[in-house]
Amino acid sequence: MIVKKPYAFLIKNFRIIHALLFVMLVYLGIKSLDIYTFFNMYATKFVYTYAADLAVKYVNYYMFIVDILAILVSLLIYYIMSLKNKERKLYIFTCLYYILLFIYFIFIYNTLSNIQINSLNIEQVRTIRDISLIVLIPQVIMTFIHLGRACGFNLKQFDFKKDLEELQIDTSDYEEVELTLGKNNYKIARFFRKALRLAKYYILEHKFVVTVCTSVVVLITTLVIFLNMRVYQERYRENQEILASTLWYTAQEAYITDSDISGNKIQKDKYYVLIRTKIDNKSANTYKLTRETFRLVVNGEMLIPKFSYKNEFLDIGEVFAPMDVPAGETKDVVIVYEIDKDDVRKEYILKIKNYDNLVIGNIASPYKEIIIKPYDLNSKNDTGTYSLPAELDFNNTVLGKSSLILGENSISSTFKENYKYCSDETTCYEGTYIVRPESTGRGSVTVLKLKTTAYIDNSISFSKYLNYPRDIIKYYGKIRYKANGIIKTTVPEIINTKYQKDTYTYLEVPKEIELAEKIELIITIRGIKYTIVLKWCI
Fold first, then answer.
1. Of 149, 211, 246, 270, which is least surrounded by CB within 10 A?
2. In sequence order, what are the residues at sequence separation of 6 or more whose Cβ sits closer than 8 angstroms to the Cβ of residue 490?
3. Which residue range is the domain that position 42 belongs to?
4. 497: left (phi over 0), alpha (psi -120 to 50) or beta
């Protein structure tokens, strides 16, 4: 294959070639900026972004491919320019620089590969940070130079007349074609042609000024776009780990409700946004969280968390309050916000403090923003009616993979259970364990005995409060019964016994339930309802 007139090809495709080269340099510049940002954060806060493979995250094989292509394109242009003895210093400098950049990427890759095994001291980190900055600056300069070449600036050193003659461009290519679109449209076309011609003359006469002004505009526009996309306006989503200040935050789940754990309204016309958040301190120092750390944007107003609803949202998690997060520890909390009923939305913005306003010269966003889409815990879902024996699966509730199995039941004012107790490891006795109502008004209440077995999902924070099957009924259970044609609902009292707590649950209920025609145990877990028929006289 014979390639004819390489210089003519270069002149004809000058802008396209430099536009492609510009795109490659921009990509390498962005990756170099990411590397500098990593080591700058590491040097200032001595904490780095954790990843399974840091080396691959910051130095991938695409960077090496693009770097090699940039070198080859620069070499090709240098060779073609040398054939005509044209100015070519820029391209040999570009070639040499990106060879050094290739070596720099290899060095960074090896450093990041070993950083989790052999930690760097602060002096080493700062040195690499400074090197990264030195490497970055020439890239910015050359990127804008090649942008100018791509736009057609700084081309006066070329002898275009001679070049065009060598291209053998026929004079017919310069002929104009007149299109008549309507009456007197030629005047409009002539006006635009004249305006375009004058603009070209002005640009050629003031090429330096136009080049400088255009470069400044492009630089400012690029900077503004970068700051808005990569710094100020970047928003994250739920289950996305982010770094704010020195801690790592993950907004795992969000809920909205107006009721407490038992399904009772907390305050009239008030709702509560609940955000389950994991806070991870990967640094070497203890960090303090205050009420200023978190904000919820509602109608342009930034709300502060509420600390006083520990019992109301016990099943969701530990309610956030000002705390210390020791080095190397993780905290799981629920951030609670109180909002008006009219402010209920499908989406909110959670702001996490990133730095204090007192930090001078910091271009980072003062807050990291997370888009929160809370699940409505008020939505009702009746799973239906169960007969004994019944197995209740709580997969779709806040209890996760927990479950409850219910068997036979009986009612009596007193239960006498065979009981074996031991005074020491070798001496045991057979006895009787008596279960009776704990209330002072024992004549008005009786005992409902239920055979119960539960599996508790230990991955949920509420699991520490669910030690036995009876605890599920304690927090979520109600008894509904029909006596003398009247339907009544009562909240049973749990009788704390030491007798087979994993197998039997004893409830203190109204005495009239003994004559009830129908008895039901209703378990409602944040709007999800389970109805178990204990007795039904037809």
1. 270
2. 478, 479, 480, 481, 509, 510
3. 6-175
4. beta
